[in-house]
Amino acid sequence: MVKPVVKAIFPVAGLGTRFLPATKSVPKEMLPVVDKPLIQYALEEARDAGIEQFVFVTGRGKSALEDHFDHSIELEHALRERGKDAELRSILDFLPPPGALASVHQHEALGLGHAVWCAHALIGDEAFAVILADDLIMAEPGCLRQMMDVYAEVGGNVAAVEDVPREHTNRYGILDVVTDDGRLARAQGLVEKPSPDEAPSTLSIIGRYVLQPEIFRHLDRQQRGAGGEIQLTDAMAATIPDVPFHGLRFEGQRFDCGAKAGFVVANVAFALARPDLAPAVREALDSL
Ligand code: G1P
């Protein structure tokens, strides 16, 4: 029996330096793809995977994220008065139930491992998910749902993975693979952002994880890794002897919305997937 997963961590304290100047005063997780901010896609994906408790690891200047998941009494009142029911539903439907959203503060940007560690008191001794909102995934069922199904079979730690060109290994956590059936790969080690000539494979972790609480025992040590940061990848690698690690090649398409090109392409792809927008967008793209 694997431990059930009902809590998810959303590390949102990053500075968004790859997306300046847009992210000077707007958190990168609030950047919209079509008409929804990235963080809303992330929470909806988590909810659809059975997550009931949502934990933001947040920082200074990020209050817009919490506001987005709170009632906007004036706006709701105005929409109700004007009979704008669809618009009203669009700002109410995604709100988590009272008490389901919590925030902890990461005072300094010390790395993804540190961000996850900051939530340890709220996670306790439970298995949990981590979603990085700037990895936006178009998939049906959602990527985290697919991972939960695999997790129910294999347990341990599970991350979403995809093959990347070898020259890109220095952007990702990379698997040292022992077995691989083309869909699920088991790793005997993991390396954070190795150079192409040192990478043990080209199978890369992208921003979805299902993790066991044992990870906190390693993160407690606050050891610095690649880039001088406390890395989640190092903690997962260190626990492999006790907690098996599997990478799932999910079905779907991932957009790196932390980078400008990926973000633009995501907007086009999500607009083309919308019946109300596709014809106009397609026509405009053709004329470009
Ligand atoms: C983080 C992780 C890395 C992972 C990546 C996925 O890196 O450290 O292992 O491959 O997310 O997006 P970051 O993109 O925060 O530098």
Describe this entry's structure for a reader.
The chain has 288 residues and is of the alpha/beta class. It has one domain (5-154, 207-237, 253-287): Spore Coat Polysaccharide Biosynthesis Protein SpsA, Chain A, CATH 3.90.550. Helices cover 32% and strands 25% of the residues. The radius of gyration is 19 Å and the shape is globular. Bound molecules: 1-O-phosphono-alpha-D-glucopyranose. 1-O-phosphono-alpha-D-glucopyranose (G1P) binds at residues 112, 132, 135, 172-173, 192, 204-207, 231-233.
Count of all domains: 1
What is the string of SSEs from the N terminus onward? EEEHEHHHEHHEEHEEEEHHEEHH
CATH 2nd-level architecture = Alpha-Beta Complex
Name of the level-1 CATH class: Alpha Beta
- The count of β-strands is 13
Major pleated sheet: 9 strands, mixed
Helical residue percent? Answer: 25-40%
Summary tags:
Spore Coat Polysaccharide Biosynthesis Protein SpsA, Chain A, alpha/beta, 25% strand, 288 residues, single chain, two-stranded antiparallel ribbon, binds 1-O-phosphono-alpha-D-glucopyranose, 11 helices
